[in-house]
């Protein structure tokens, strides 16, 4: 049951990579690359997009501008429009590896993985010495749950650049989903040395240690995410591990900390009531359970099906909580 407690925490992590803007700008002929590069250096992608679209009004058939527009639409969160711009660029000039790479990026974002594989394959054929092409191929394959094949491409990217962060995180996650937590940790730990603030990667480290039964490590990383990022799910994970270790007082403290930080979270009260009932603090457990159900009536169904409350199904106080009297 406690293991199930942790299963509701799911991190959906998509690591996307586009072509370096500089590669596309090297092809430019009809606009100021210096102006655009300044925007890129400052990560001012909205302003860069405005500039590119102004230039496109004067040069609507400039394939480099169209490719830049596609890249910037991806950076600003518009994959459908980005794909249209990239395709328009490729219709004018199809010998543009950067555009194919960004096409793969857009297709991955749109979960059109088979098409992304085709675009990434062309990009690799055109420029087999760039890590981005191999990473996007790995990402597309991973999106289709073909993680074993994806590993080949992440390894290729790491041959080109041993410190490629996208390849390291991709490799680590692929190993995790292949049921290889120890190998996953090897890549994830290297990645976190380079990008220590990546919470999503920290979660996969937690998952891998949990699968290996390294609960002390799970607690350590959960506490790190609580301390550094006040991560709500990390409170739950920490508390559930403490329950598994039957460290009930510590689990209650964890839930109290969660409730203090997120007082509107009805589920936190529910899980606290479970700990109390397992400590035979029935009156307190029912009080907290009642509060959770007042906040979220759907938790009635949880309580009715929860094994820790099965012994109380005929208890009048429990029944009153469930039916709301």
From TrEMBL:
Gene3D superfamilies: Tetratricopeptide repeat domain
Keyword terms of this UniProt record: Repeat, TPR repeat
InterPro entries in UniProt: TPR-like_helical_dom_sf, TPR_rpt, Ycf3/AcsC/BcsC/TPR_MFPF
Keyword Repeat set for record: yes
TPR repeats: 97-130, 131-164, 165-198, 232-265, 266-299
Residues annotated as signal peptide: none
Alphabetical list of NCBIfam families matching this protein: TPR_END_plus
UniProt name for this protein: Tetratricopeptide repeat protein
Phylogenetic lineage: Bacteria, Bacillati, Bacillota, Bacilli, Bacillales
